[in-house]
Amino acid sequence: MIGSATAAVMPSPAEIIIPSSWEEAAEAIAFDSTPFPPPLTMVCGAANCGKSTFSRLLLNTLLMRYRRVGYLDADVGQPEFTAPGCISLHIIDKKTPDLSILQMKTPERCIFFGHISCQQDARNHSISVFILYDYFRKEFYQIDDFDNPCKTLVPLIINTSGWVQGTGYDMLVEMLQHMSPSHIVRVCVSSESGNFLNGQCWLKKHQNVPMNLVEICAGTSSYIQPEIMRKEARMIQDLRIVAYFRQCLPGEMSFACHKEFVDNFASIHPCEIPLSRIKFNHVGCQIATDEVSTSLNGSIVGLVVSSSDLSGKTTPWCIGLGIIIAMDYSKDQIHLVTPVPLAILRKVDLLLKGTIDIPICLQKVYKFSSLDEVIQKQHCAQSSGCRSEEFLQKQLFASESSACSSPKNMLSKEQLAD
């Protein structure tokens, strides 16, 4: 156990105090390890124990030594850089000075899981994580890539979910066996039932992998307050969804009150994509043709571009999220709101619906029964003369400048060039 974390209790939503033991652990991983190959670090622990905060601290610390750092986010409930319901891989080259600010970043690759808890589909969650990890190994961690000796290997942080018991424990063991990380960070809580990993019990008999186990104390006391933790988690999930769709509005726009944000959001003109060339699926099942409209209207969907490799295997890469507000069969059009640019949106061939709810503040905007109501609502919002001042500027809508100044998507540079 490295030190203590008594100073890590979050005193206010806007301030995060990092204990010295966490800084020591992050520096040990970043600087005490050999430079080649770079460390592969998995952060494990119960829900609400500080895994994400430590992961971002470790990310900043690694960026002091490496030009780029990979970040595989398997926490679908409270992801760091995307909206909830997504499993994503990021390649990051800039530090995050303020760990309390919600960040929206464009992932290298993203898969739409469709739920805010991995417990809702444990098998597909594991499969998605393995797809992203294998992609990372292929593109950024080829140790024996003699054909490209100048290619620099990238360290990786894997931020896991907080499910550490029962099936969740089995999932973590399976991840450890598949990935064989060089470092495992165990974030310990006061309740022993919330802790994970004792020794090297996860290793298979034939495996002999050098592994460094780093133990730190949890950075919050709310693990023992499950009701408060659930309410906080839902609030943060809603904030992240709103922060994602806030990218549909100009980055310099700010708001004096909640109503002004809603009114400005209602004035956004929806994008239009051809209805006939899009497939529709619920995550885990198909949607009957006669139920598409009633099932999808007013819902959050994953925007997916199917990609096939040389072997013919298709991977449903997610390029972003959208809110379907109307389906016009007479004009063969789907009307949806999304920050994804139209040129990229035209590549979408599949819409996936999960169980992600629209935040209450946006439900007031998108409870429509017809396209006429959409147009009428937009007209009312545009003629209301809403002014734009300060509104939750730091906690709700703060984002890296590139993410706010122009709407981002989840396609890689290679796909953008297609």
From TrEMBL:
Using the record's annotation, list all stretches that form the Clp1 P-loop domain: 45-246
Where in this chain does the record put each NOL9 C-terminal domain? 267-359
- Which keywords does this chain's UniProt record carry? ATP-binding, Kinase, Nucleotide-binding, Nucleus, rRNA processing, Transferase
GO biological process terms, alphabetically, are: cleavage in ITS2 between 5.8S rRNA and LSU-rRNA of tricistronic rRNA transcript (SSU-rRNA, 5.8S rRNA, LSU-rRNA)
What are the subcellular locations of this protein?
Nucleus, Nucleolus
Mind telling me which InterPro entries this protein's record contains?
Clp1/Grc3, CLP1_P, NOL9_C, P-loop_NTPase
Carries keyword Membrane?
Answer: no
- One cellular component term from this protein's GO annotations in UniProt: nucleolus
Keyword rRNA processing included in the entry's annotation: yes
Name of the protein this chain belongs to: Polynucleotide 5'-hydroxyl-kinase NOL9
Q: Which organism is it from?
A: Vanilla planifolia (Vanilla)
